[in-house]
Design goal:
Blueprint lengths: L3 E6 L6 H14 L2 E6 L13 H12 L5 E3 L2 H4 L6 H12 L4 E6 H5 L10 H4 L1 E5 L10 H7 L3 E2 L2 H6 L5 E4 L8 H9 L27
Parallel strand pairs: 1-2, 1-4, 2-3, 4-5, 5-7, 6-7
Bound molecules: adenosine-5'-triphosphate (ATP).
Adenosine-5'-triphosphate (ATP) binds next to helix 1, strand 4, helix 5 and helix 9.
Length: about 210
């Protein structure tokens, strides 16, 4: 069975870094990948764009291809949701199908702060995506917990439903939503850092542009 890859994030806004690594991860794992925008918990800085605006941008970005899909289940629930609960929902829906939680190397390095992080491996594999320009030093406790789970063989991921960690060597792209928000706020036009679809409708990027 083709694995189902789950790529969560704020996507404020979605950029070519997200798309390119999700696409390459899908190729490397021969997986279908869903992009899953998150509700941001109240104790974190609020995204610049609303949930609806972030979804509109994702829809525009994903138009015209069928390998990457949008999954809004975390936004459809009110309030922030724990990844462990979302994965439980996927597991109930998809039975034994391999699930792969895709995380940028920076997100993976911070895994120990996640609710019930050790239990994640009962529900999913983790695909770690290399990301240049970020501090992705893996804490000793995390490395100890995952060492025996590591594999570099995608066929192992396809043969089991959960429990392994695989590094996915994708083309490094040093792009971040933070940088794109800065450029737009300065009145710049980061045309080739964003998917073309975001320029089809001027309203899509309006949340980031400085008001005259
Ligand atoms: P921000 O700059 O606002 O923090 P971001 O660009 O890191 O945003 P997020 O939506 O926070 O984007 O990231 C979602 C996921 O995508 C995370 O797992 C993150 O590590 C990963 N990611 C984002 N950009 C890249 C990139 N250029 N290369 C690899 N992974 C990335």
């Amino acid at each position: 069975m083709k694995p189902l890859g789950l790529f969560g994030g704020t996507f404020d806004p979605i950029h070519i870094g997200h798309l390119s690594v999700a696409w390459e991860a899908a190729e490397l794992l021969d997986a279908e990948v869903r992009l899953m925008p998150a509700n941001v918990p109240p104790h974190r800085a609020a995204p610049t764009a609303t949930a609806t605006q972030r979804v509109d941008m994702l829809r525009a970005a994903l138009r015209g291809q069928s390998r990457l899909a949008l999954d809004t289940r975390e936004l459809d629930r009110s309030g922030p949701s724990y990844t462990i609960d979302t994965l439980g929902e996927f597991r109930r829906e998809f039975g034994e199908r391999p699930l792969v939680l895709l995380l940028g190397a920076d997100a993976f390095a911070g895994l120990r702060s996640w609710h019930r992080w050790r239990d994640l491996f009962d529900l999913t594999h983790i695909g770690v995506i290399n990301r240049p320009g970020v501090d992705a030093c893996i804490p000793v406790e995390l490395e100890r917990a995952v060492a025996a789970r590591r594999t570099d063989d995608p066929s192992v991921i396809r043969a089991q439903s959960a429990g392994r960690v695989i590094e996915l060597a994708v083309t490094p792209l040093e792009v971040s939503a933070t940088r794109i928000r800065e450029l737009l706020a300065e009145g710049r036009d980061p045309r080739y850092l964003l998917p073309g679809g975001l320029f089809d409708d001027p309203a899509l990027l309006a949340p980031y542009r400085a008001t005259p």
